[in-house]
Amino acid sequence: MSHRPHQPAHDPAQDVSPYAEALSDFAARGRARFTTPGHQADAAAQPLLAEWLGYPALDLDVQPTVEGIDHGPDNAMDRTLDLAAAAWGSRRTWFLTNGSSQGNLTACLALAGLGGTIVAQRSVHSSVVDGLMLSGLVAEFVAPNIDHALGIAHGVTADSLDAALTATPDAVAAYVVTPSYFGACSDVAALAEVAHAHGAALVVDEAWGAHLGFHPALPTNAVRLGADLVIASMHKLGGSLGQTALLHLGHSDYAARLEPLVTRALRSMQSTSESALLLASLDLARRQLAAHGEVSIGRSLDAVARLRSRLASDGRFQDATPFVSAFPDVVDIDPLHVVIETRSGGITGHEARALLFAEHGQHVEMSTDDVIVLIVGAGVVHDMEAFADALLALPSSDTARHRHIELPDAGQRRMTVREAWFAPSEVVPSSEAVGRVSADSVAAYPPGIPNLMPGEVITEATLAFLRDTAASPNGWIRGALAEDLSLVRVVVEP
Ligand SMILES: Cc1ncc(COP(=O)(O)O)c(C=O)c1O
């Protein structure tokens, strides 16, 4: 387990929300609004919206650049961002209203300002691939550890990052993902040390870890472990509204060099009309985590422990966390991701997820062929007995026990992401695509990790995996030209 630098999880100074309070104050004054948003908080003009969403939400949906709220000296947003930086231990934190996807696009654009090449974990999210395509940054990929038994990708070790950076001496940054979708945390402190020894910044996609550090039983967040730029989806487990995320800057000289680039890149990746409701939800969720997280997350952890112990005593389904922890890159685990191996219990993960949803009212975050993954939002206390009852009532079959879809290795890279994306391309039947170079990013979703990236040679194994995933209950392939993956966009090579 990694060491856990001190992070106050119950800080009374954090028990304020300046931006949200400034919006409430603005609404309370009842000024006539001749501004955007054009609903102008008028329930008579927008009765449908006011009734559906609730009138207070319209009233608080205030346009940006209002003096005192997010504009001018000592404005509420500046105070809010300072509180966020203190809560996560960053040099500086920005709020994002288009998810970690926006954070990854911003990071890629900023890194392109440092130089042309990075080393990136192959299992980055598709938004990083989009960032490469838009920025022209070239990535040399380092393979994560793959758990072939469960069909899931973990992280990279410091040794494999060291080898990749040695092979890529001009890399300006290393780009890793931790925690994984399965709660597996890499050794960020060691990765930062290795990256810095090679003269590279460490960027961490911590989309799944915005809540880390706000309870002593949780792993420490990446910025406190020495990462230089960190992207975190606050909406995932941190409690804010959908689409909200955070971008943190670390404390090293690398971070200092990145700061002006990130500031400029963010401006290009941001709406000029960010939603006040989304921003306020970040302010309020930060307050909840930093001032009350220790108590509320403690309740979530207790509930998760009850579920794990029920699974252990029943014995049909296995808590997969011990298997995940056995990988050399995994130095810590976020217990709020519950990974349950279902296949040896006689049902595939995809089938279990579909039946839990359709017949038992239980909506599980994601599945692979082998596992289902539950995520428990910070502070949420579920009825774990009801969930376990539903899970244990699922049917079982021997076919499921013996079925296994292998997670394919990445195909050989022949062009950069950007070269392949902009190259002349054609759409071909997938039966004719093997051996050709993909022009698109194609990913089983969730998790949204591209199985095919622009520039990679298409293999039969990758197509078979994507086809099987598409045919599974709830299977969805992001970037597919046809739902059954019968068509693929490939580069026309000269
Ligand atoms: C590792 C990782 N990074 C980035 C993202 C994108 O996050 P968002 O949905 O907040 O844009 C995801 C989404 O699942 C993800 O898993």
Descriptive account of the structure:
The longest helix has 39 residues. Among the domains are: 109 residues, Aspartate Aminotransferase, domain 1; 75 residues, Orn/Lys/Arg decarboxylase, C-terminal domain (Ornithine Decarboxylase, Chain A, domain 4), CATH 3.90.100.10. Helix 1 crosses helix 11, helix 5 crosses helix 10 and helix 7 runs parallel beside helix 8. Strands 1-10-9-8-6-2-3 form a seven-stranded mixed beta sheet, sandwiched between helices. With 494 residues, the protein is α+β, with helices and mostly antiparallel strands. The N and C termini lie far apart (51 Å). The protein contains 17 helices and 20 strands. Pyridoxal-5'-phosphate binds next to helix 5. The site of pyridoxal-5'-phosphate has 14 residues, from helix 5.
SSE layout:
Blueprint: H1 18-29, H2 47-53, H3 55-60, H4 76-88, E1 92-96, H5 99-112, E2 117-121, H6 126-135, E3 138-142, E4 146-147, E5 152-153, H7 158-167, E6 171-177, E7 184-185, H8 188-197, E8 201-205, E9 229-232, H9 234-238, E10 245-249, H10 253-268, H11 276-314, E11 318-319, H12 321-325, E12 332-333, E13 337-341, H13 349-360, E14 366-367, E15 371-375, H14 384-392, H15 398-402, H16 417-422, E16 425-429, E17 442-444, E18 449-452, H17 460-471, E19 477-478, E20 487-491
Parallel strand pairs: 2-3, 2-6, 6-8, 8-9
Antiparallel strand pairs: 1-10, 4-5, 7-12, 9-10, 11-13, 13-15, 14-15, 16-20, 17-18, 17-19
The structure holds pyridoxal-5'-phosphate.
Pyridoxal-5'-phosphate is lined by residues 99-101, 104, 125, 127, 177, 181, 205, 207, 233, 245, 447-448.
